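User: Hello! My lab partner asked me to get a predicted holo structure for this protein. The small molecule is pyridoxal-5'-phosphate, SMILES included with the sequence. Please write out the structure tokens.
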Amino acid sequence: MEKISLANLPTPIVKLEELSKEYGKNIYLKRDDFTGTEVSGNKVRKLEYAIAEAIENKCDTIITVGALQSNHCRATSAVCAKLNLDCHLLLRGEDLEVEGNLFLDYMLGSNIHILREDRDLEKEAIKLFNKLEKLGKKPYIIPMGASNKIGTYGYIEAFNEISKYEEKEKINFDLISMAVGSGGTYSGIWYGNYTNKTNKKVLGFSVSSSSVEFKEKIMNILKEIDNNIEKFDSVEINDLYVGEGYGKSNREEIEFYLHVAKTEGIILDPCYTGKAFRGLIKEIQDGNIKEDNILFIHTGGLMGWTKEQRNMAYKIVDERS
Ligand SMILES: Cc1ncc(COP(=O)(O)O)c(C=O)c1O
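Assistant: Hello! Below are the structure tokens for the protein in complex with pyridoxal-5'-phosphate.
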């Protein structure tokens, strides 16, 4: 599969020494938040493949979809700006605060279409595709989170990076964990583990939908990649830590992010990595994780801290001082 190089790879893996001591496991972090600045996070690994396909097909316009604070849409905006492609973002949301990722989308020169919560983004993308084609453009649609066959190659490659690290450092991660928002990151890591017969547990934490819905979605992506896979029973998605809902935080969650920040000097995002990492730690505390060498993938998302979440964090810090 062809790709273009857009991310700083391979990303480092670091041991979280203090949290490892605190929770009695060897906890490592793969810093996919280091893939870049404007393009930081997991999405750029997927875009390396999706944009390569668009360019190969001589497309001049990228259309993609997401929530108002989508990290994927921001990364796509940056890549399009760099490669001189027109970028159209269909963003769903009601709160029009122009900050974080949305602010960067504007700065990066994307065409922004904001749609009400009840609109079907994928259908709207096809309508826009037809309209732009009539105007003489050659558009290419990247689905939500670039979580389709082509985007998933980015995380099969990430699995190979992890294997190389294990070989070099003489360690075997028996559990790899990450946030699940549209399923592509999980699918790539699961498939790498499956094809290499490395027998790791791959544990995803949902940030929105039920585990049943995500398993279905992931199975569909995996079947697109390889229709000879016989068993999917090791696809494991925990949906117990979604909390108040997608993109929303409660006090306990924010307190946990502050703890990680203060103990390890690492900032998690409240929408994806925060929820998932908190879920992983809670599962360790509850004795549900038997594996000892654990790798969590930090998939980025720092620009997604909303004003409300920042204020909650500030209030907690202020109360303590
Ligand atoms: C920062 C961040 N982490 C994790 C995810 C989840 O990854 P995936 O969509 O591949 O499940 C996303 C996007 O959904 C994200 O923006």
